[in-house]
């Protein structure tokens, strides 16, 4: 029986405007680039297993480094977040599609060319100036590679602006009439905050990159000191985007974790309002902290103090979230599903990254560790913790909805154990390396740092191995996995109140909200079939 | 949400406090503190580590306890308690981080002031006679394709004339600028791919930094080609070197010895090889070193010695790889061009 929810595999290679197809297109593309970014990282760690630059030449190392950073940020976290948002937002708010379906497809179709362009540069002239691409270095390492880098990031940035606009309008305008903002899933709140940030800050990055391109290609001197330009101005423009960008990267995953923790602990999310509003506060504060990346860049003293204080203040709303998640677990009925394990990993790693983040905000300490491996450790705890653990968590949780099949839990746990061990082995020693004097972005280092680097490299290999069980599990389960019911986790948010995978138009009839998104413990799930919670919910398919 | 029994809370509190105080003092993560600034920063660091470690124990502890105590039993389809929030608790955990970060901010501000961070603002920047030296060596790197020097059009004239008006002298750095008394030592540091060149008073030029102990030394930092960063890990200070803009550091060594000088800002492929040493001498040794260099200057001998790589010669491989690009980058001819008079 065809329930109207079957998609042909070829649909995924077309300009399809169904948000669910686009969501999966984004996610699969993101995973593809994650594997590339991970391979680049493994190559770097292999080089760093010994102090001498013996595996690749230093130029190649810098190419690997630049591509790794750029790929992980613009082709992994951002598209994966956008993919989740695309898939989930209309389902969560009971809409049939996004507000601007065609714009949505256009936004996605900018990502593959952007990525392929970037990766291809590796074969003739990789950009070498790091993902920050500071001038004057970026103006001197080769015009072709740098030009490609700029073009690729501009494409990605444009895609992200189009996506952000779409998410914002969809959430604000297309909720079912019975859903006030305060009954909206927290993932949607997080996406409002993310979209606001994207819309405000990404254009500034575009501005910086266009000016940089003029310097590079047309020989102007906006940032080029030999013509009287000021390279520090680039840093201000760059970080005005790129600090908020950190929140663009992690906020969607903060949203996702709020969903997962509550369902798998069977408890209402603790402090719904606090978690919802803290996303908005974070995005506001995120806009006024950029110069904490520039404490040693010739920033005047009073500005350093201003940015130190604003940066510290962000710890408060972020802390509220972390405490809220922990309190949600407390007295819950915690199921050790793979999704929950990744959520727990996310919280622990993010906590460590958050603590080192507050330390970095303190100017005198940051002056010592800026541009060292301490910073590399810090941002991987935040970005790796949030992105890899958060995205895998989301996949284990929503895979049944997306594919109509369950993933294998045993291999999920193996995947988790390997990732968690590998992650800590790789990045924990980097804190000490940085404090002791190892600067970042180097292919050759002082031999006194060898031992800790060897540990980090072993960790990176463990992580590389950890993706194997996941990949096999995902591909195998997609085809042969156990059939998933409509609502395998007995969750209360709307996306679970339709078929798995959902109808082409999501809901046969638009659902009406009876419970809040996290009303566990009120007897709804215990006494009533969750399918009946919604007046017009679609019955589960007979499998 | 019930608060656990007071006695248990107290015990946990005591344990966490003791553990974090111990770790804060005994983590041994920082290298030797060889400057006054380092001692200040280390105080801040151990305070933050103490607080951070305590927080880590509390939150990870709560997580672990939760996942073991509140595991779902097989076949239990029920829900947890319907707990949506707890206002007093939420206020407490908003207030605690707020107070902590406020405390750390005030402490950091104090340390930063004592390191002379704010002193610079009072100083009259870039008055007449404070011309910044901008050395340049346009063709310094024959045949090196990896270096930017050959490609970046270093029209030094423009740069120099701009700077002589004192417009681009940065206010940034650390430490009060040393009064320009005769006794005060002020060294010009030039960053270039991939070396630091130190211009001492009286025309001494060297690839290594020599300073006397227990005396403030002013460093004026300039970059010739791209951004570099001057970092002394054992001194806990770092400052970017920006082409076209002078920045400063004042350092106060408190221990004799040899310490690494590291470039911390990505400056090209051999960024990792851009390092040299800082030698802190006793006052007499320093005077002797100066005399020796002056004598060499008078005899028209070498004006500079290349940085000698780390004293630890065990890893010959390493030394080779890092000396090579270095010699490539600062050919002896270009050193002549870099002399500051
Ligand atoms: C798969 C495991 C990973 C490993 C082994 C790894 C390792 C590394 C290494 C060795 C560096 C270079 C550090 C340096 O030389 O300064 C680096 C830089 C970086 N990584 Fe990763 N990384 C991993 C995953 C990630 C993820 C998931 C993200 C973000 C989502 C990420 C973002 C970055 C960024 C932004 C940089 C800085 C690049 C730059 O300085 O231009 N990495 N990583
Ligand atoms: Cu350098
Ligand atoms: Cu460098």
What attributes characterize this protein structure?
heterodimer, A: 543 residues, mainly alpha, 66% helix, disordered C terminus, B: 341 residues, alpha/beta, five-stranded mixed β-sheet, binds protoporphyrin IX containing FE, binds copper (II) ion
Tally of helical runs of chain B: 8
State which percent range the strand residues of chain A make up: under 5%
Strand order of the largest sheet of chain B: 1-9-6-2-3-4
Structural class of chain B: alpha/beta
Could you name the ranges of chain A where pLDDT drops below 50 across 5 or more consecutive residues? Answer: 533-543
Oligomer: heterodimer
Tell me what portion of residues of chain B adopts beta-strand conformation. 15-25%
Q: Radius of gyration of chain B from the CA trace?
A: 26 Å
What characterizes the major β-sheet of chain A? none
Structure, briefly:
By secondary structure, chain A is mainly alpha-helical.
Describe this structure in words.
The complex is a heterodimer of chains A (543) and B (341). By secondary structure, chain A is mainly alpha-helical. Chain A is built from 15 helices and no strands. Chain A has helices at residues 19-47, 58-92, 101-124, 137-140, 143-173, 186-218, 231-265, 272-286, 301-329, 338-361, 363-369, 373-403, 409-436, 450-480, 524-527. In chain A, α7 packs parallel to α9. Chain A is globular, with a radius of gyration of 23 Å. The termini of chain A are close together. By secondary structure, chain B is an alpha/beta fold. Helices cover 39% and strands 17% of the residues of chain B. Chain B has eight helices and eleven strands. In chain B, α1 runs antiparallel to α2 and α2 (36-69) runs antiparallel to α3 (87-114). The radius of gyration of chain B is 26 Å and the shape is elongated. The termini of chain B are far apart. The complex binds protoporphyrin IX containing FE (HEM) and copper (II) ion (2 copies). Residues 228, 263, 265-267, 271, 274 of chain B line the site of one copper (II) ion. The site of one copper (II) ion has 7 residues of chain B, from loops.
């Amino acid at each position: 029986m065809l329930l109207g929810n079957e998609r042909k595999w070829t649909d995924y290679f077309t300009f399809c405007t169904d948000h669910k197809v686009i969501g999966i297109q984004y996610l699969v593309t993101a995973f593809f680039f994650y594997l590339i970014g991970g391979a680049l990282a493994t190559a770097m760690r292999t080089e760093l297993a010994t102090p001498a630059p013996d595996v690749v030449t230093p130029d190649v190392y810098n190419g690997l480094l630049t591509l790794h950073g750029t790929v992980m940020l613009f082709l992994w976290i951002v598209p994966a977040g956008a993919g989740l948002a695309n898939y989930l937002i209309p389902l969560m708010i009971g809409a049939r599609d996004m507000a601007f379906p065609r714009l949505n497809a256009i936004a996605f179709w900018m990502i593959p060319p952007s990525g392929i362009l970037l990766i291809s540069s590796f074969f003739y002239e990789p950009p070498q100036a790091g993902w920050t691409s500071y001038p004057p270095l970026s103006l001197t390492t080769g015009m072709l590679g740098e030009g490609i880098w700029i073009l690729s990031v501009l494409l990605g940035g444009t895609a992200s602006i189009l996506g952000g606009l779409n998410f914002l309008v969809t959430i604000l305008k297309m909720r079912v009439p019975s859903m006030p903002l305060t009954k909206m899933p927290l993932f949607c709140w997080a996406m409002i905050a993310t979209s606001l940030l994207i819309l405000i800050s990404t254009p500034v990055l575009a501005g910086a990159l266009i000016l940089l391109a003029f310097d590079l290609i047309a020989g102007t001197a906006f940032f080029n000191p030999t013509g009287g330009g000021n390279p520090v101005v680039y840093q201000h423009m760059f970080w005005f985007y790129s600090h908020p960008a950190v929140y663009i990267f992690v906020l969607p995953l903060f949203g996702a974790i709020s969903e997962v923790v509550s369902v798998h602990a069977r408890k209402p999310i603790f402090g719904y309002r606090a978690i919802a509003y803290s996303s908005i506060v974070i995005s506001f504060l995120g806009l006024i902290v950029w110069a904490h990346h520039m404490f040693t860049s010739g920033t005047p003293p009073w500005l350093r103090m201003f940015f130190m204080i604003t940066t510290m203040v962000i710890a408060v709303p972020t802390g509220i979230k972390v405490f809220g998640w922990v309190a949600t677990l407390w007295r819950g009925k915690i199921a050790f599903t793979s999704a929950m394990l990744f959520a727990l990993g996310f919280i622990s790693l993010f906590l460590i990254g958050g603590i080192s983040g507050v330390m970095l905000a303190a100017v005198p300490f940051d002056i010592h560790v800026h541009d060292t491996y301490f910073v590399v450790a810090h941002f991987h705890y935040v970005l790796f913790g949030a992105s890899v653990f958060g995205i895998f968590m989301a996949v284990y949780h929503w895979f049944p909805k997306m594919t109509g099949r369950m993933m294998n839990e045993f291999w999920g746990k193996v995947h988790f154990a390997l990732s968690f061990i590998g992650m800590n082995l790789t990045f924990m020693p980097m804190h000490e390396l940085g404090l002791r004097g190892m600067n970042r972005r180097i292919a050759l280092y002082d031999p006194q740092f060898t031992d800790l680097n060897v540990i980090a490299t072993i960790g990176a290999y463990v992580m590389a191995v950890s993706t194997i069980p996941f990949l096999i599990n995902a591909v195998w389960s997609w085809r042969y996995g156990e059939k998933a019911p409509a609502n395998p986790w007995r969750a209360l948010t709307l996306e679970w109140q339709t078929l798995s995978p959902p109808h082409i138009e999501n809901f046969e009839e638009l659902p009406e909200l009876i419970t809040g998104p996290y009303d566990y413990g009120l007897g709804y799930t215990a006494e009533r079939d969750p399918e009946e919670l919604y007046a017009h919910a679609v019955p589960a398919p007979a499998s | 949400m019930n608060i656990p029994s007071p006695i248990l809370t107290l015990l946990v509190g005591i344990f966490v406090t003791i553990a974090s105080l111990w770790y804060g003092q005994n983590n041994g993560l920082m290298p030797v503190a060889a400057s006054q600034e380092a001692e200040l920063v280390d105080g801040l660091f151990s305070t933050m580590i103490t607080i951070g470690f305590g927080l880590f124990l509390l939150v990870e502890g709560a997580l672990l306890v939760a996942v073991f105590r509140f595991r779902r039993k097989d076949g239990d389809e029920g829900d947890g308690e319907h707990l949506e929030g707890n206002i007093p608790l939420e206020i407490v955990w908003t207030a605690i981080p707020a107070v902590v970060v406020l405390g750390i901010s005030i402490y950091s501000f104090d340390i930063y002031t004592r390191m002379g961070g704010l002193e610079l603002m009072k100083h009259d920047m870039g008055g007449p006679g404070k011309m910044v030296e901008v050395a340049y060596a346009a063709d310094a790197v024959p045949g090196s394709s990896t270096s930017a020097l050959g490609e970046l059009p270093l029209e030094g004239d423009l740069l120099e004339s701009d700077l002589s008006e004192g417009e681009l002298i940065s206010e940034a750095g650390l430490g009060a600028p040393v009064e320009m008394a005769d006794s005060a030592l002020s060294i010009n540091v030039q960053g270039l791919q991939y070396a630091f060149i130190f211009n001492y008073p009286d025309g001494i030029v060297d690839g290594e930094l020599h300073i006397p102990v227990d005396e403030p030394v002013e460093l004026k930092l300039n970059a010739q080609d791209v951004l570099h960063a001057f970092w002394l890990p054992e001194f806990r200070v770092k400052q970017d070197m920006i082409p076209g803009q002078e920045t400063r550091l004042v350092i106060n060594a408190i221990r004799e010895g040899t310490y690494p000088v590291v470039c911390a800002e990505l400056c090209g492929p051999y960024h990792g090889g851009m390092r040299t040493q800082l030698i802190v001498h006793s006052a007499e040794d320093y005077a002797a070193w100066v005399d020796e260099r002056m004598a060499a200057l008078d005899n028209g001998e070498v004006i500079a010695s290349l940085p000698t790589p780390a004293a630890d010669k065990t890893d010959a491989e390493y030394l080779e790889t890092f000396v090579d690009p270095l010699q490539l980058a600062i050919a002896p001819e270009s050193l002549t061009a870099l002399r500051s008079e």
